DNA sequence: ATGTCTGCAAAGGCTTTGCATCCGT
DNA sequence: ACGGATGCAAAGCCTTTGCAGACAT
């Protein structure tokens, strides 16, 4: 098998925010099932500003992830700033400071992180997963030519409405990807 | 190389509709850069209702795709009804009627079809591309447990706003994927 | 001391490519 | 005859897995 069966753990609380990042001032339209408004998106339990190893350790601990040297290095790459990186890019970054980290460990750790909601997996291109270190609800802009991923500001794009979910299913998340290309190709 | 460099041909006309499928009655909110309204989404040049080989041939011709036996079979699988199928599923369907079609031909043809905008590629899961035979602008609902893809009705979810595109880039499309899971796992 | 994590290499799945062959025009 | 499409198999890429050894608590 190439990848775990298409299934990831439930996001638990904080799901509804995904529907309306920054919907605060949008007027209700003719759509009856408007979503409630949220002021402060319930971001991940911990993240960002983990420049130091101490921060990274705290971040991992509070997510219930056993702390190891490699995980600290990976966390520092991810959480020192908001980034969008592929697994191999992360591996390369980690290797700059710790050449002793294997690719398999990076891949396994990234999957663990995403299960613990420390990062978000973006399926922006079928051939590689992009890891987003920002876990609060937001949308994305993807440059198909450069492969670059950028977060969209809350006020750039909003979603309106509540889709009718099939019976027996629960909302997991909503992905919005704005794809752009370079002009004149 | 595993896949063509991340780039597909420009969609050309009909791009803007992607922003607002069914936005007809949405009131303008505080967002200054609202999108204009479109009544009839400019669907693909041809598609659907291609039950007969004759229909499939007409469909291919008007898309500028040279007609071959295999392409007719693939078109019939795709355009007899709105479907969401992986390349291998399409290959299997084609083989039921024409066991003489190779997997490589199906993969190559599907890429050709998507370049000609006869089908749309959905990156719903990083491990396989799902081909959507409906090319008019619409959003998707994805069951992460079953792998099932469903179209969202226009009135179920709407997008509001125009993202600020990076300089030198052109909007290509907007993907919205609502991910659900089966209850109680 | 025990359980877990790591590293390495090999497997695995989906997709693409190369090349000879076959077909339509 | 010629250009292009097909088939087959092999290559390729990203990701996962298995297992022995190392580590933390």
List keywords for this structure.
DNA-binding; Arc Repressor Mutant, subunit A; 2 domains; 4 helices; alpha+beta; homodimer; globular; 24% helix; 185 residues; three-stranded antiparallel beta sheet; three-stranded mixed beta sheet
Which parts of chain A are unreliable, with pLDDT below 50 for 5 consecutive residues or more? 5-47
Count the helices of chain A. How many? Answer: 4
CATH class of the largest domain in chain A: Mainly Alpha
Shape of chain A: globular
How would you characterize the overall build of this protein?
The structure is a homodimer of 185-residue chains. With 185 residues, chain A is α+β, with helices and mostly antiparallel strands. Chain A folds into two domains: 15-117, Orthogonal Bundle (Arc Repressor Mutant, subunit A); 128-180, no CATH class. The first copy, chain A, is built from four helices and seven strands. The first copy, chain A, has helices spanning 53-62, 69-79, 87-97, 103-115; strands at 84-86, 120-125, 128-132, 140-143, 149-151, 158-160, 169-182. In chain A, the strands form two sheets. Chain A has a three-stranded antiparallel β-sheet. A three-stranded mixed β-sheet of chain A has the order 5-4-7, with no helix packed on it. In chain A, strand 2 (120-125) and strand 3 (128-132) form a beta hairpin. In chain A, helix 1 packs across helix 2. The radius of gyration of chain A is 18 Å and the shape is globular. The termini of chain A are far apart. Strand 7 of chain A pairs antiparallel with strand 7 of chain B, so a sheet runs across the interface. The structure holds a DNA duplex (25 and 25 nucleotides).
């Amino acid at each position: 098998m190439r990848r775990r069966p298409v299934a990831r753990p439930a996001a638990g609380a904080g799901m509804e925010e995904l529907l309306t990042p920054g919907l605060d001032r949008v007027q209700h339209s003719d759509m009856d099932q408007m979503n409630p408004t949220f002021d402060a998106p319930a971001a991940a339990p911990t993240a960002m500003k983990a420049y130091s190893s101490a921060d990274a350790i705290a971040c991992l601990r509070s997510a219930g992830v056993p702390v190891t040297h490699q995980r600290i290095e990976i966390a520092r790459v991810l959480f020192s700033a908001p980034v969008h990186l592929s697994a191999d890019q992360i591996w390369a970054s980690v290797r700059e400071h710790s050449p002793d980290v294997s690719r398999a460990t990076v891949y396994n750790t990234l999957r663990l992180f995403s299960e613990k909601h420390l990062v978000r997996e973006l399926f922006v291109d079928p051939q590689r997963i992009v890891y987003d270190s920002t876990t609060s609800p937001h949308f994305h802009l993807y440059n198909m030519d450069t492969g670059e991923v950028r977060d969209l500001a809350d006020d750039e794009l909003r979603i309106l409405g509540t889709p009718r979910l099939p019976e027996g299913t629960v909302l997991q998340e909503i992905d919005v990807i704005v794809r752009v290309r370079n002009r004149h190709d």
